[in-house]
Specification:
By secondary structure, the chain is mainly beta. The protein is 3% helix and 60% strand. The protein has a 16-stranded antiparallel β-sheet with strand order 15-13-12-11-10-9-8-7-6-5-4-3-2-18-17-16, with helices on one face. A two-stranded antiparallel ribbon has the order 1-14.
């Protein structure tokens, strides 16, 4: 279980927010990626495939998440996501299970006058839990705090420090309890997920460059069994990564994973 999974255990859902950054005209767009894990005695085995969808103006309108079935060698859809805009800002994101016409997941966005996210509301019919995320910005210190409150009574706060467009430190707290704190370094290449034009709850899309090293101290609340510690990349001629390899701390069954990335 990754660090992001630890946050997911706290959140009990997925929350996304609009990003002012996105792909500019003429730049590559993510087409799809395949994530694989290096499993004992098996080598790298595919796990997930994510296909991105765009409108005629190359604006992201959704994506499909599929899981790999070893018996058939094919990918089968797990869920698909629809991204809805009001103007240039994400106003709603809907999640659907295969062959369903009604969404099981809905995110509603509210914004500040300066265009930054103020609040995100989540309704999840599969868990029966709704949630609200409220954003507070400390521009003087370059930090952002997001407070999450859940209908089951749970809550936590995630606070991060931005420097040159990247998250360099963060911490997760639950009331007076410090759950974790981390620090990160980056390369100078484009993070392809940031070019999607929105930032997901796990903040993969937020930082503009690619993470090289992360050092996280887990103290309480949630303890992932699979903890990333460093990343290596292969790049195309435009400087975009085509292969992202994640190296985890020793002790887990899967100590390496890869994302093979394709562009359109």
């Amino acid at each position: 279980m990754k660090r992001s999974t630890a946050l997911l255990l706290l959140a009990l859902g997925v929350l996304s927010c609009h990003s002012e950054e996105g792909t500019k005209a003429g730049e590559p767009r993510l087409d799809h990626y395949v994530e694989s894990y290096d499993l004992p005695d098996l080598g790298f085995q595919p796990q997930l495939k994510v296909n991105y969808q765009y409108n005629s103006k190359d604006k992201l309108i959704g994506y499909v998440v599929s899981s790999y079935t070893p018996d058939t060698g094919n990918f089968q859809e797990l869920r698909h996501i629809e991204v809805i805009y009001t103007g240039d800002a994400v106003s709603k994101i809907l999640g659907y299970l295969p062959n369903e016409v009604n969404p099981y997941l809905e995110y509603i966005y509210e914004y500040r006058q300066d265009g930054r996210v103020l609040k995100i509301g989540e309704t999840n019919s599969s868990t029966g839990i709704s949630s609200v995320a409220e954003f507070q910005y400390d521009d003087a210190n370059g930090s952002v705090k997001v407070a999450y409150a859940f209908s089951n009574g749970g809550s936590f706060e995630y606070e991060f420090q931005l420097m040159e467009g990247n998250i360099v430190t963060d911490k997760t707290t639950r009331g007076a309890q410090l759950c974790s704190e981390g620090s990160y370094t980056y390369d100078d290449h484009v993070n392809p997920f940031q070019t999607l034009g929105y930032t997901d709850y796990l903040l993969i899309n937020l930082s503009k460059n690619n993470k090289l090293v992360e050092n996280i101290n887990y103290l309480s609340c949630a303890f992932p069994s699979l903890i990333p510690e460093s990343y290596t990349y292969k790049y195309n001629g435009l400087g975009y990564p085509t292969l992202i390899t994640t190296h985890y701390k020793p002790g887990a069954d899967a100590i390496t994973s890869q994302k093979e990335i394709f562009y359109r």
